[in-house]
Amino acid sequence: MGCFECCIKCLGGVPYASLVATILCFSGVALFCGCGHVALTGTLTILENHFSKVTTDHAMLTDVIQLMQYVIYGIASFFFLYGIILLAEGFYTTSAVKELHSEFKTTICGRCISGMFVFLTYILGVAWLGVFGFSAVPVFLFYNMWSTCNAINTPTVNVTDIDSICVDVRQYGIIPWNATPGRACGSTLGDICKTSDFYLSYHLYIVACAGAGATVIALLIYMMATTYNFAVLKFKSREDCCTKF
Q: What is the pLDDT of residues 10-30, one digit of tens each?
């Protein structure tokens, strides 16, 4: 076998679907975790400086944000390992499906592992759908605040008293009702929207939401690839049983 034929054979064993899904998964998780971590810090800074100046009023929120940041560390570590494992499993099952190497044979243990990955990837896909929906919530809240600021800054707005335009974050349940001041109105609200913390956090939440969506797509590709390989391996195992008799 020449060098060219050997390269073609090796390229035939590359699980392109799993490779694309791995790259997309790493990119999506990196965007979600990195941008989400910084955006949470910026959100806490905005609340402390403008909406809840008494530390005890948002002590629970501070603990929740810190907990979420630790969870982000765990998510990043887990999906880094899980993506590598799924890519390795893709290389093995693709070679077994295409029978490129005689030493790659299907076994009961191998099929059980493939089935486990199908089930686990499905569960993770459903979980990330929830994460994607949850990550859209801060985008919605910041968008409402941003659109309110635009209403203040628009010269054609028909409002006699700009100070009557307010954003009260207490109504979202982020901080308790006894937090002071709890809301921002008029020019104060406009100044908040012009801060770097607001601008950065708003756009980082959008990127984090997009990263969560990319991760959902990656897990969907993983599910299709692993399900196909598992089905083919199971079918081949039945063929092998039939040929023995």
A: 555 567 778 888 899 999 999
Instruction: Please calculate the CA angle 67-71-73 and round it to the nearest 5 degrees.
Output: 120
Report pLDDT digits (tens) over 73-83.
Answer: 999 999 889 88
**Percent of residues, the chain, with pLDDT higher than 90:** 26
Mean pLDDT for 238-245 is 50
Tokens linked to 25: 């998964």
Two structure tokens written together for 164? 């009557």
C-alpha span between 76 and 86 (Å, rounded) = 15
Phi, psi (5° rounding) for residue 7? -65, -40
Count of alpha carbons within 13 angstroms of residue 162, beta-carbon side: 15
Phi/psi at 142 (nearest 5 deg)?
Answer: -70, -35
Which runs of consecutive H residues, i.e. helices, occur in 47-161?
59-98, 108-153
Q: Where are the domains of the chain?
A: 17-99+109-135+197-238
Burial of 219 from C-beta contacts in 10 A (0-12 / 13-18 / 19+): buried
Give the closest residue to 183 by CA, choosing from 51, 45, 42.
51
For residues 209 and 135, the answer to whether their CB atoms sit within 8 Å is: yes
Which residue has 């390269």 as its token pair? Answer: 7
Specify the 3-state DSSP secondary structure of 209: helix
> Is the CB of residue 200 less than 8 Å from the CB of residue 63?
no
For the chain, the residue count is 245
Angle, helices 59-98 vs 16-46, to 10°: value is 180
Task: State pTM to two decimals.
Answer: 0.82
